[in-house]
Give the backbone structure.
Amino acid sequence: MKNAVRIPDALLRSVLVALALALALGPLGANAAAAKAARPNIVFVLTDDHSLQTIGAYDSRLSAFCREQKVTPNIDRLAARGGLFVNSFCGNSLCSPSRASILTGLHSHANGVMNLDEPIRPGLWTYPDSLREAGYQTAMIGKWHMAGSRPTTDHWRILPGQGDYWHPEFIGPGGREKHAGYATDIITDMSLDWLRQRDKARPFMIMVQHKAPHRNWIPAPRYYHWLADVHVPEPATLFDDYAGRTSPAHNQKMEIGRHMSLASDLKVFQGTNWPGEMKRMSAAEQAEWLAAFGPRNARFTNSQPTGKELTRWKYQEYMKDYLRCIKAVDDGVGRIVGYLKSEGIEDNTVVIYASDQGFYNGEHGWFDKRWIYEESIHMPLIVQWPGVVKPGSRFKAMVQNIDYAETFSEMAGATIPAGLHGRSFVPILRGQTPADWRRSIYYHYYAPDSHDVPPHLGVRNDRYTLANFYETGEWELYDLKKDPQQMHSVLGDPKYAKTLGIMKAELMRLKTDFRDESQ
Ligand code: CA
Protein backbone atom coordinates (compact mmCIF):
# COMPACT_ATOMS: atom_id res chain seq x y z
CA MET A 1 0.00 0.00 0.00
CA LYS A 2 2.89 2.36 0.76
CA ASN A 3 4.11 2.08 -2.82
CA ALA A 4 0.61 2.68 -4.17
CA VAL A 5 0.39 5.90 -2.16
CA ARG A 6 3.84 7.13 -3.25
CA ILE A 7 3.18 6.84 -7.02
CA PRO A 8 0.69 9.73 -7.16
CA ASP A 9 3.16 11.80 -5.12
CA ALA A 10 5.90 11.15 -7.68
CA LEU A 11 3.54 12.00 -10.50
CA LEU A 12 2.48 15.20 -8.76
CA ARG A 13 6.13 16.17 -8.28
CA SER A 14 6.81 15.58 -12.01
CA VAL A 15 3.86 17.73 -12.99
CA LEU A 16 4.96 20.52 -10.65
CA VAL A 17 8.54 20.41 -11.98
CA ALA A 18 7.23 20.54 -15.57
CA LEU A 19 4.97 23.48 -14.72
CA ALA A 20 7.81 25.34 -13.00
CA LEU A 21 10.07 24.74 -16.02
CA ALA A 22 7.39 25.94 -18.42
CA LEU A 23 6.87 29.11 -16.34
CA ALA A 24 10.62 29.72 -16.12
CA LEU A 25 11.16 29.22 -19.88
CA GLY A 26 8.16 31.35 -20.77
CA PRO A 27 7.05 31.86 -24.36
CA LEU A 28 10.64 31.83 -25.71
CA GLY A 29 11.23 28.27 -24.50
CA ALA A 30 7.92 27.16 -25.91
CA ASN A 31 8.75 28.68 -29.31
CA ALA A 32 12.17 27.06 -29.38
CA ALA A 33 10.62 23.69 -28.63
CA ALA A 34 8.00 24.23 -31.34
CA ALA A 35 10.67 25.27 -33.84
CA LYS A 36 12.67 22.13 -33.11
CA ALA A 37 9.60 19.95 -33.49
CA ALA A 38 8.79 21.70 -36.75
CA ARG A 39 12.06 20.64 -38.41
CA PRO A 40 10.87 17.63 -40.37
CA ASN A 41 12.84 14.66 -41.56
CA ILE A 42 13.07 14.49 -45.35
CA VAL A 43 12.88 11.35 -47.49
CA PHE A 44 13.48 12.15 -51.16
CA VAL A 45 12.76 9.24 -53.49
CA LEU A 46 13.99 10.00 -57.01
CA THR A 47 13.48 7.53 -59.83
CA ASP A 48 14.91 7.47 -63.32
CA ASP A 49 12.58 8.02 -66.28
CA HIS A 50 9.31 7.32 -64.46
CA SER A 51 6.58 8.97 -66.54
CA LEU A 52 3.67 10.86 -65.12
CA GLN A 53 1.40 8.68 -67.34
CA THR A 54 2.25 5.60 -65.26
CA ILE A 55 1.31 6.90 -61.81
CA GLY A 56 -2.21 6.06 -60.68
CA ALA A 57 -2.62 9.26 -58.65
CA TYR A 58 -2.27 11.49 -61.71
CA ASP A 59 -5.02 12.13 -64.23
CA SER A 60 -3.02 11.03 -67.24
CA ARG A 61 -3.22 8.57 -70.14
CA LEU A 62 -2.56 5.39 -68.16
CA SER A 63 -3.61 6.54 -64.68
CA ALA A 64 -6.88 4.58 -64.60
CA PHE A 65 -5.10 1.48 -65.92
CA CYS A 66 -2.41 1.88 -63.24
CA ARG A 67 -5.02 2.19 -60.49
CA GLU A 68 -6.88 -0.85 -61.80
CA GLN A 69 -3.71 -2.96 -62.00
CA LYS A 70 -2.31 -1.57 -58.71
CA VAL A 71 0.94 -0.45 -60.34
CA THR A 72 1.70 2.37 -57.86
CA PRO A 73 -0.50 1.91 -54.74
CA ASN A 74 2.15 3.17 -52.31
CA ILE A 75 3.10 6.18 -54.43
CA ASP A 76 -0.62 6.93 -54.90
CA ARG A 77 -1.07 6.83 -51.13
CA LEU A 78 1.56 9.57 -50.73
CA ALA A 79 -0.51 11.73 -53.09
CA ALA A 80 -3.73 10.95 -51.22
CA ARG A 81 -2.20 11.79 -47.85
CA GLY A 82 -0.33 14.77 -49.34
CA GLY A 83 -0.45 16.44 -52.72
CA LEU A 84 0.79 16.28 -56.29
CA PHE A 85 2.01 18.89 -58.75
CA VAL A 86 0.30 18.77 -62.14
CA ASN A 87 2.64 21.38 -63.64
CA SER A 88 6.08 20.12 -62.57
CA PHE A 89 8.82 20.35 -65.20
CA CYS A 90 12.49 19.80 -65.88
CA GLY A 91 14.70 22.33 -67.66
CA ASN A 92 16.71 19.81 -69.72
CA SER A 93 15.11 16.39 -70.09
CA LEU A 94 18.07 14.11 -69.49
CA CYS A 95 19.34 12.16 -66.44
CA SER A 96 22.54 13.93 -65.30
CA PRO A 97 21.39 17.46 -66.19
CA SER A 98 18.11 17.14 -64.30
CA ARG A 99 19.85 15.66 -61.26
CA ALA A 100 22.39 18.50 -61.29
CA SER A 101 19.59 21.09 -61.40
CA ILE A 102 17.87 19.36 -58.48
CA LEU A 103 21.11 19.45 -56.44
CA THR A 104 22.22 23.01 -57.27
CA GLY A 105 19.03 25.00 -57.93
CA LEU A 106 20.61 26.10 -61.22
CA HIS A 107 19.91 25.47 -64.90
CA SER A 108 22.40 23.36 -66.86
CA HIS A 109 24.45 26.18 -68.35
CA ALA A 110 25.21 27.49 -64.84
CA ASN A 111 25.96 24.20 -63.06
CA GLY A 112 28.06 22.77 -65.89
CA VAL A 113 26.03 19.57 -66.42
CA MET A 114 24.58 20.06 -69.87
CA ASN A 115 25.01 16.46 -71.02
CA LEU A 116 25.28 12.95 -69.59
CA ASP A 117 28.18 12.05 -67.31
CA GLU A 118 29.45 15.58 -66.72
CA PRO A 119 30.57 16.71 -63.24
CA ILE A 120 28.99 19.60 -61.38
CA ARG A 121 31.13 22.74 -61.73
CA PRO A 122 33.72 22.55 -58.88
CA GLY A 123 32.88 24.45 -55.70
CA LEU A 124 29.16 24.83 -56.42
CA TRP A 125 26.75 24.62 -53.50
CA THR A 126 24.41 21.63 -53.36
CA TYR A 127 21.47 21.41 -50.98
CA PRO A 128 22.93 18.66 -48.71
CA ASP A 129 25.65 21.19 -47.77
CA SER A 130 23.10 23.50 -46.13
CA LEU A 131 21.18 20.64 -44.51
CA ARG A 132 24.37 19.32 -42.90
CA GLU A 133 25.21 22.80 -41.61
CA ALA A 134 21.70 22.99 -40.15
CA GLY A 135 22.35 19.83 -38.15
CA TYR A 136 20.70 17.27 -40.39
CA GLN A 137 22.13 13.79 -40.88
CA THR A 138 22.30 13.23 -44.59
CA ALA A 139 22.58 10.20 -46.86
CA MET A 140 22.55 9.52 -50.61
CA ILE A 141 21.92 5.98 -51.80
CA GLY A 142 21.55 4.75 -55.38
CA LYS A 143 21.86 6.36 -58.79
CA TRP A 144 23.91 9.56 -58.75
CA HIS A 145 25.23 9.89 -62.34
CA MET A 146 27.34 13.01 -61.85
CA ALA A 147 30.59 11.76 -63.42
CA GLY A 148 33.49 12.51 -61.02
CA SER A 149 31.41 14.61 -58.58
CA ARG A 150 30.72 12.89 -55.26
CA PRO A 151 27.84 13.49 -52.83
CA THR A 152 28.55 15.81 -49.91
CA THR A 153 26.17 13.85 -47.69
CA ASP A 154 27.46 12.30 -44.43
CA HIS A 155 26.87 8.83 -45.84
CA TRP A 156 26.77 7.75 -49.49
CA ARG A 157 26.73 4.70 -51.69
CA ILE A 158 26.29 5.42 -55.40
CA LEU A 159 25.94 3.31 -58.53
CA PRO A 160 28.74 3.87 -61.05
CA GLY A 161 27.18 5.72 -64.00
CA GLN A 162 23.86 4.15 -64.93
CA GLY A 163 24.50 1.16 -62.65
CA ASP A 164 23.25 -2.37 -63.23
CA TYR A 165 19.89 -3.95 -62.40
CA TRP A 166 21.46 -7.25 -61.36
CA HIS A 167 24.24 -7.68 -58.77
CA PRO A 168 25.24 -4.01 -58.99
CA GLU A 169 28.49 -2.50 -57.83
CA PHE A 170 28.28 0.60 -55.65
CA ILE A 171 30.93 3.23 -55.00
CA GLY A 172 31.43 4.45 -51.44
CA PRO A 173 34.12 6.55 -49.73
CA GLY A 174 36.24 3.38 -49.48
CA GLY A 175 35.97 2.43 -53.17
CA ARG A 176 33.88 -0.13 -55.03
CA GLU A 177 31.65 -2.69 -53.32
CA LYS A 178 29.85 -5.64 -54.88
CA HIS A 179 26.24 -6.31 -53.89
CA ALA A 180 24.21 -9.39 -54.72
CA GLY A 181 20.60 -9.12 -55.81
CA TYR A 182 18.25 -6.74 -57.65
CA ALA A 183 19.19 -3.04 -57.65
CA THR A 184 15.81 -1.58 -56.62
CA ASP A 185 15.55 -3.88 -53.60
CA ILE A 186 19.20 -3.33 -52.64
CA ILE A 187 18.77 0.46 -52.71
CA THR A 188 15.68 0.14 -50.49
CA ASP A 189 17.51 -2.24 -48.10
CA MET A 190 20.55 0.05 -47.86
CA SER A 191 18.31 3.05 -47.20
CA LEU A 192 16.47 1.22 -44.41
CA ASP A 193 19.79 0.07 -42.90
CA TRP A 194 20.99 3.67 -42.75
CA LEU A 195 17.70 4.87 -41.26
CA ARG A 196 17.87 2.21 -38.53
CA GLN A 197 21.41 3.13 -37.44
CA ARG A 198 21.00 6.92 -37.58
CA ASP A 199 21.29 9.23 -34.56
CA LYS A 200 17.66 9.41 -33.49
CA ALA A 201 18.17 12.69 -31.64
CA ARG A 202 18.72 14.64 -34.87
CA PRO A 203 16.57 15.17 -37.99
CA PHE A 204 17.62 13.42 -41.19
CA MET A 205 17.49 13.79 -44.95
CA ILE A 206 17.92 10.75 -47.17
CA MET A 207 18.05 10.64 -50.96
CA VAL A 208 16.78 7.26 -52.17
CA GLN A 209 17.63 7.34 -55.87
CA HIS A 210 16.61 4.34 -57.94
CA LYS A 211 18.03 3.20 -61.25
CA ALA A 212 14.59 1.89 -62.17
CA PRO A 213 12.70 2.18 -64.43
CA HIS A 214 15.56 3.18 -66.77
CA ARG A 215 16.12 1.37 -70.06
CA ASN A 216 16.58 -1.56 -70.59
CA TRP A 217 13.79 -2.35 -68.14
CA ILE A 218 14.78 -5.53 -66.33
CA PRO A 219 12.12 -6.46 -63.77
CA ALA A 220 12.41 -8.22 -60.41
CA PRO A 221 11.63 -11.96 -60.67
CA ARG A 222 8.58 -11.63 -58.40
CA TYR A 223 6.90 -9.66 -61.21
CA TYR A 224 7.89 -11.80 -64.22
CA HIS A 225 4.32 -13.13 -64.60
CA TRP A 226 2.47 -10.01 -63.45
CA LEU A 227 0.53 -8.29 -66.33
CA ALA A 228 1.44 -11.17 -68.69
CA ASP A 229 -2.15 -11.55 -69.89
CA VAL A 230 -3.15 -7.90 -69.63
CA HIS A 231 -3.52 -5.52 -72.59
CA VAL A 232 -1.88 -2.13 -71.94
CA PRO A 233 -3.93 0.66 -73.60
CA GLU A 234 -2.22 2.08 -76.68
CA PRO A 235 -1.76 5.82 -77.14
CA ALA A 236 -3.78 7.42 -79.96
CA THR A 237 -0.50 8.77 -81.35
CA LEU A 238 1.38 5.43 -81.54
CA PHE A 239 1.57 5.77 -85.33
CA ASP A 240 2.21 9.53 -85.51
CA ASP A 241 3.74 10.49 -88.88
CA TYR A 242 5.05 13.88 -87.58
CA ALA A 243 3.32 15.72 -90.43
CA GLY A 244 2.53 18.63 -88.10
CA ARG A 245 6.14 19.16 -86.99
CA THR A 246 9.47 20.45 -88.34
CA SER A 247 12.41 18.26 -89.37
CA PRO A 248 13.77 17.13 -85.94
CA ALA A 249 10.73 14.93 -85.20
CA HIS A 250 11.15 13.27 -88.61
CA ASN A 251 14.86 12.61 -88.07
CA GLN A 252 14.88 11.28 -84.49
CA LYS A 253 15.78 7.71 -83.57
CA MET A 254 13.51 6.88 -80.66
CA GLU A 255 10.62 5.07 -82.28
CA ILE A 256 9.36 1.86 -80.77
CA GLY A 257 8.70 0.47 -84.24
CA ARG A 258 11.99 1.33 -85.92
CA HIS A 259 14.54 1.85 -83.16
CA MET A 260 13.67 -0.23 -80.10
CA SER A 261 15.95 -3.28 -80.07
CA LEU A 262 14.40 -6.74 -80.01
CA ALA A 263 17.46 -8.18 -78.27
CA SER A 264 18.64 -5.69 -75.63
CA ASP A 265 15.37 -3.80 -75.05
CA LEU A 266 12.81 -6.58 -75.44
CA LYS A 267 15.03 -9.58 -74.61
CA VAL A 268 14.10 -11.65 -77.65
CA PHE A 269 17.18 -13.77 -78.32
CA GLN A 270 18.27 -17.19 -79.49
CA GLY A 271 19.87 -19.93 -77.38
CA THR A 272 22.37 -18.70 -74.81
CA ASN A 273 23.03 -15.35 -76.49
CA TRP A 274 21.95 -13.35 -73.41
CA PRO A 275 21.60 -9.65 -74.16
CA GLY A 276 23.31 -6.83 -72.28
CA GLU A 277 23.39 -6.96 -68.52
CA MET A 278 21.26 -10.12 -68.37
CA LYS A 279 24.66 -11.79 -68.68
CA ARG A 280 25.17 -10.66 -65.06
CA MET A 281 22.42 -12.99 -63.83
CA SER A 282 23.42 -16.31 -62.26
CA ALA A 283 22.54 -19.57 -64.07
CA ALA A 284 19.62 -20.08 -61.66
CA GLU A 285 18.37 -16.52 -62.26
CA GLN A 286 18.64 -16.97 -66.02
CA ALA A 287 16.72 -20.24 -65.73
CA GLU A 288 13.95 -18.47 -63.78
CA TRP A 289 13.76 -15.75 -66.45
CA LEU A 290 13.67 -18.35 -69.26
CA ALA A 291 10.89 -20.28 -67.55
CA ALA A 292 8.80 -17.09 -67.55
CA PHE A 293 9.71 -15.56 -70.92
CA GLY A 294 10.98 -18.51 -73.01
CA PRO A 295 7.45 -19.45 -74.19
CA ARG A 296 6.79 -15.81 -75.14
CA ASN A 297 10.00 -15.70 -77.20
CA ALA A 298 9.08 -18.98 -78.92
CA ARG A 299 5.63 -17.60 -79.82
CA PHE A 300 7.21 -14.43 -81.19
CA THR A 301 9.73 -16.37 -83.28
CA ASN A 302 6.97 -18.56 -84.70
CA SER A 303 4.58 -15.72 -85.55
CA GLN A 304 7.19 -13.15 -86.76
CA PRO A 305 4.92 -10.08 -86.68
CA THR A 306 5.81 -7.21 -89.03
CA GLY A 307 4.77 -3.59 -89.64
CA LYS A 308 2.16 -2.15 -87.28
CA GLU A 309 1.61 -5.57 -85.74
CA LEU A 310 5.29 -5.69 -84.72
CA THR A 311 5.14 -2.16 -83.27
CA ARG A 312 2.10 -3.13 -81.25
CA TRP A 313 3.81 -6.28 -79.93
CA LYS A 314 6.92 -4.27 -78.99
CA TYR A 315 4.78 -1.62 -77.26
CA GLN A 316 3.03 -4.25 -75.11
CA GLU A 317 6.25 -5.99 -74.06
CA TYR A 318 8.13 -2.72 -73.45
CA MET A 319 5.32 -1.36 -71.29
CA LYS A 320 4.98 -4.51 -69.24
CA ASP A 321 8.68 -4.62 -68.33
CA TYR A 322 8.62 -0.86 -67.64
CA LEU A 323 5.62 -1.22 -65.31
CA ARG A 324 7.18 -4.28 -63.62
CA CYS A 325 10.28 -2.20 -62.83
CA ILE A 326 8.03 0.52 -61.35
CA LYS A 327 6.18 -2.03 -59.24
CA ALA A 328 9.39 -2.89 -57.35
CA VAL A 329 10.06 0.83 -56.81
CA ASP A 330 6.55 1.15 -55.39
CA ASP A 331 7.24 -1.78 -53.04
CA GLY A 332 10.32 0.13 -51.82
CA VAL A 333 8.26 3.27 -51.16
CA GLY A 334 5.83 1.14 -49.15
CA ARG A 335 8.62 -0.39 -47.08
CA ILE A 336 10.18 2.98 -46.27
CA VAL A 337 6.83 4.52 -45.29
CA GLY A 338 6.16 1.38 -43.24
CA TYR A 339 9.41 1.97 -41.38
CA LEU A 340 8.52 5.61 -40.70
CA LYS A 341 5.19 4.44 -39.26
CA SER A 342 6.79 1.76 -37.11
CA GLU A 343 9.18 4.36 -35.68
CA GLY A 344 6.33 6.78 -35.01
CA ILE A 345 7.95 9.48 -37.18
CA GLU A 346 5.71 9.48 -40.26
CA ASP A 347 3.92 12.61 -39.04
CA ASN A 348 7.19 14.52 -38.77
CA THR A 349 8.69 13.34 -42.05
CA VAL A 350 8.26 14.85 -45.51
CA VAL A 351 8.22 12.14 -48.17
CA ILE A 352 8.81 13.39 -51.71
CA TYR A 353 8.46 11.20 -54.79
CA ALA A 354 9.81 12.50 -58.11
CA SER A 355 11.47 11.34 -61.29
CA ASP A 356 14.37 13.11 -63.04
CA GLN A 357 12.16 13.75 -66.06
CA GLY A 358 9.21 12.30 -67.91
CA PHE A 359 9.25 9.57 -70.55
CA TYR A 360 7.44 8.48 -73.69
CA ASN A 361 5.31 5.39 -73.27
CA GLY A 362 4.51 5.05 -76.96
CA GLU A 363 3.08 8.57 -77.39
CA HIS A 364 4.13 9.80 -80.87
CA GLY A 365 5.48 6.28 -81.40
CA TRP A 366 8.37 6.98 -79.02
CA PHE A 367 10.28 5.77 -76.00
CA ASP A 368 12.98 7.93 -74.27
CA LYS A 369 12.75 11.65 -73.40
CA ARG A 370 14.82 14.79 -74.37
CA TRP A 371 12.16 16.94 -76.09
CA ILE A 372 10.47 20.04 -74.71
CA TYR A 373 7.18 18.28 -75.61
CA GLU A 374 4.75 17.31 -72.88
CA GLU A 375 5.57 13.70 -71.93
CA SER A 376 9.31 14.37 -71.53
CA ILE A 377 9.23 17.82 -69.92
CA HIS A 378 6.81 16.81 -67.15
CA MET A 379 8.34 15.47 -63.93
CA PRO A 380 6.08 13.56 -61.55
CA LEU A 381 6.21 15.32 -58.15
CA ILE A 382 4.31 14.13 -55.10
CA VAL A 383 4.79 15.45 -51.55
CA GLN A 384 3.40 13.97 -48.34
CA TRP A 385 3.91 16.39 -45.44
CA PRO A 386 1.47 15.69 -42.60
CA GLY A 387 0.08 18.80 -40.95
CA VAL A 388 1.33 21.06 -43.76
CA VAL A 389 0.06 19.70 -47.10
CA LYS A 390 -3.69 19.30 -47.14
CA PRO A 391 -4.50 15.67 -48.07
CA GLY A 392 -5.48 15.24 -51.72
CA SER A 393 -4.05 18.60 -52.85
CA ARG A 394 -3.47 19.13 -56.58
CA PHE A 395 -1.10 22.06 -57.07
CA LYS A 396 -1.27 23.90 -60.39
CA ALA A 397 1.62 26.35 -59.95
CA MET A 398 4.52 25.79 -62.38
CA VAL A 399 7.43 24.28 -60.49
CA GLN A 400 10.73 23.12 -61.92
CA ASN A 401 13.71 20.97 -60.93
CA ILE A 402 15.65 24.17 -60.13
CA ASP A 403 13.26 24.65 -57.15
CA TYR A 404 14.03 21.48 -55.18
CA ALA A 405 17.29 22.59 -53.53
CA GLU A 406 15.69 25.79 -52.22
CA THR A 407 12.58 23.86 -51.10
CA PHE A 408 14.48 21.20 -49.15
CA SER A 409 16.63 23.92 -47.55
CA GLU A 410 13.56 25.87 -46.42
CA MET A 411 11.92 22.72 -45.06
CA ALA A 412 15.03 22.19 -42.92
CA GLY A 413 15.33 25.82 -41.84
CA ALA A 414 18.72 25.84 -43.62
CA THR A 415 20.54 28.62 -45.46
CA ILE A 416 19.59 29.24 -49.10
CA PRO A 417 22.42 30.95 -51.01
CA ALA A 418 21.69 34.01 -53.15
CA GLY A 419 21.79 33.81 -56.93
CA LEU A 420 20.03 30.50 -57.49
CA HIS A 421 17.67 30.09 -60.45
CA GLY A 422 14.80 28.43 -58.59
CA ARG A 423 12.58 29.29 -55.67
CA SER A 424 11.32 27.32 -52.69
CA PHE A 425 7.82 25.95 -53.23
CA VAL A 426 7.18 25.51 -49.51
CA PRO A 427 4.60 28.38 -49.60
CA ILE A 428 2.72 26.48 -52.33
CA LEU A 429 2.76 23.34 -50.18
CA ARG A 430 1.24 25.43 -47.39
CA GLY A 431 -1.55 26.46 -49.78
CA GLN A 432 -0.26 30.02 -50.27
CA THR A 433 1.09 30.40 -53.82
CA PRO A 434 2.96 33.74 -54.01
CA ALA A 435 1.30 36.28 -56.33
CA ASP A 436 4.56 36.72 -58.25
CA TRP A 437 5.16 32.98 -58.80
CA ARG A 438 6.56 32.10 -62.28
CA ARG A 439 4.11 31.81 -65.18
CA SER A 440 6.46 30.27 -67.72
CA ILE A 441 9.37 27.88 -67.63
CA TYR A 442 12.69 27.90 -69.46
CA TYR A 443 14.05 24.90 -71.33
CA HIS A 444 17.41 24.16 -72.99
CA TYR A 445 18.43 20.71 -74.26
CA TYR A 446 21.94 20.24 -75.62
CA ALA A 447 22.80 16.65 -76.28
CA PRO A 448 22.42 15.11 -79.72
CA ASP A 449 23.45 11.49 -79.35
CA SER A 450 22.15 8.11 -80.42
CA HIS A 451 18.54 9.32 -80.47
CA ASP A 452 19.31 12.26 -82.78
CA VAL A 453 17.24 14.87 -80.98
CA PRO A 454 18.93 18.18 -81.84
CA PRO A 455 19.67 20.91 -79.28
CA HIS A 456 16.75 23.22 -78.67
CA LEU A 457 15.64 26.16 -76.58
CA GLY A 458 12.11 26.75 -75.50
CA VAL A 459 9.51 28.20 -73.20
CA ARG A 460 6.24 26.77 -71.95
CA ASN A 461 3.44 28.58 -70.17
CA ASP A 462 -0.02 27.37 -69.17
CA ARG A 463 -1.30 27.59 -72.76
CA TYR A 464 1.56 27.44 -75.27
CA THR A 465 4.90 25.74 -75.94
CA LEU A 466 7.47 27.45 -78.15
CA ALA A 467 10.52 25.48 -79.34
CA ASN A 468 13.55 26.72 -81.26
CA PHE A 469 15.75 24.10 -82.96
CA TYR A 470 18.52 26.60 -83.48
CA GLU A 471 20.93 24.45 -85.50
CA THR A 472 18.45 24.36 -88.38
CA GLY A 473 16.72 27.63 -87.51
CA GLU A 474 13.34 25.89 -87.14
CA TRP A 475 10.61 26.95 -84.69
CA GLU A 476 7.43 25.25 -83.47
CA LEU A 477 4.49 26.67 -81.52
CA TYR A 478 1.81 24.49 -79.90
CA ASP A 479 -1.55 25.51 -78.51
CA LEU A 480 -1.86 23.11 -75.57
CA LYS A 481 -5.53 23.90 -75.04
CA LYS A 482 -6.63 23.11 -78.59
CA ASP A 483 -3.97 20.49 -79.32
CA PRO A 484 -2.94 18.86 -76.02
CA GLN A 485 -1.17 16.02 -77.83
CA GLN A 486 0.91 18.52 -79.81
CA MET A 487 0.19 17.11 -83.25
CA HIS A 488 0.25 20.40 -85.21
CA SER A 489 2.59 23.31 -84.80
CA VAL A 490 0.63 26.53 -85.42
CA LEU A 491 3.74 28.58 -86.09
CA GLY A 492 2.70 29.68 -89.60
CA ASP A 493 -0.95 30.31 -88.72
CA PRO A 494 -1.66 34.07 -88.92
CA LYS A 495 -4.14 33.75 -86.04
CA TYR A 496 -1.18 33.01 -83.77
CA ALA A 497 1.12 35.78 -84.99
CA LYS A 498 0.60 37.90 -81.88
CA THR A 499 1.03 34.89 -79.56
CA LEU A 500 4.23 33.95 -81.38
CA GLY A 501 5.63 37.43 -80.76
CA ILE A 502 4.73 37.26 -77.05
CA MET A 503 6.26 33.79 -76.65
CA LYS A 504 9.46 34.73 -78.48
CA ALA A 505 9.83 37.80 -76.26
CA GLU A 506 9.26 35.64 -73.17
CA LEU A 507 11.91 33.17 -74.31
CA MET A 508 14.42 35.96 -74.79
CA ARG A 509 13.50 37.47 -71.41
CA LEU A 510 14.17 34.16 -69.65
CA LYS A 511 17.39 33.53 -71.59
CA THR A 512 18.64 36.97 -70.56
CA ASP A 513 17.48 36.67 -66.94
CA PHE A 514 19.24 33.33 -66.54
CA ARG A 515 22.29 34.63 -68.43
CA ASP A 516 22.25 31.61 -70.70
CA GLU A 517 24.96 32.20 -73.29
CA SER A 518 25.57 28.49 -73.89
CA GLN A 519 23.90 28.35 -77.30
CA1 CA B 1 16.45 9.85 -66.38
Q: What stands out?
A: Residues 40-219+314-513 form a domain with the Alkaline Phosphatase, subunit A fold (CATH 3.40.720.10). The chain is about 35% helix and 15% strand. The CA atoms of residues 234 and 362 lie 7 Å apart. The longest strand covers residues 41-47.
